[in-house]
Amino acid sequence: MRLSLLDRSRTRAGHPEAAALRHTVERAVGAERLGYHRFWVAEHHGVPGIASGAPAVLLAAVGAATSGIRLGSGGVMLPNHQPLVVAEQFLVLAALHPGRVDLGVGRSLGFTAPVRRALRRTGEEPDTFAEDVAELRGYLERTGQVTARPVTGEPVPLSVLATGRGVGVAAALGLPLVLGGPVLDRPELADVLAGYRRDFRPHGDSRPHVTVSLDVLVADTDREARELALPEVWAMVRSRRTGVFDVLEPVGEIRGRRWDDLDARRVEQGLAAATAGRPASVRRRLEQLAERTGADELLASGATYDRAALAASDAALAALLR
Fold it and tell me: pLDDT category, 126, cuts 50, 70, 90?
């Protein structure tokens, strides 16, 4: 499998939110040095724990700080945008960083009702995702009714992010699939991927391409890696109580709190589900995933409070799959 990184620009307790964006750029520089294939960023709106709601803007900064690693979005949430505007943003990126830009699109709406209202989405709109993706591709390939500018050389490669229904859209349009979330652990995963490959309708010379996206953290021991995974798991556990996905906190502060039985159970479940461990443990889990999915690429998206430990994890993962 090719190896890529997705960084969600996670905010950290004790640091200004803007620092998360600088941390993302610094991580991209490290990823390029380590030989990662792509570096992707995400789109989230109104989330205290995530600083970036504008992938195209952040990718411009990442591209300026790097020289060869591919840049992409994991992803642009197409229901929030007009396809023409998305095409123009990524064509500008492609003109600035030729041959390096990818565009991953998804269909998720905002996490909360206020955010959805701010995005002018009620959840009751008709589902036009497949049509919007096809329209977007037309602009990128210069076959649409409007010519999106700037006109560049090769079209920007397009992928569909999915946790369920988007799989069919990717197959019908002959596009690469980025699959993540709970579906990776479900018994029907093999059927989902078999359906994608079976129903794939080539567009030009396109072929089925599967990228699996999951959190991965590597440390010297399984215990150390589980501790690295704790800040992200804790943020998710607390969000189920508060409705707010919050900043990453230091492990010591999290361990120093009193947890009730429900929080303790949810933390343990989250840690058990994480792909976090010593190199041999992580390799075994990734080999199992590769066997189950036949994936062409791994998009690793691990995060933790300790940035030095995160950089060491990125280096260990790169060495593991070299």
Answer: confident
Question: H-helix or E-strand containing 40?
Answer: strand 38-41
Chain Cα centroid distance, residue 102? 13
72 is written with which tokens?
Answer: 């992409």
- Residue 322 CB coordination number (10 Å): 8
Tell me the C-alpha to C-alpha distance, in Å, between residue 300 and each of 31, 80, 120: 11, 25, 31
Q: Which of 228, 217, 233, 101 is nearest to 159 (CA)?
A: 101
The number of C-alpha atoms within 13 Å of 111 and in the hemisphere containing its C-beta is: 17
Fold classified for 2-218+277-320: TIM Barrel (3.20.20)
Element (H, E) at 266: helix 261-273
* Token output for 36: 């990662």
Q: What does the alpha-carbon distance between residue 265 and residue 251 come to, in Å, rounded to a whole number?
A: 17
Any idea where the domains of the chain sit in the sequence? Answer: 2-218+277-320
pLDDT one-digit tens code per residue, 261-311: 999 999 999 999 899 999 999 999 999 999 999 999 999 999 999 999 999
Alpha carbons 103 and 292: distance in angstroms, whole number:
26
Q: Are 156 and 86 in contact (CB under 8 A)?
A: no
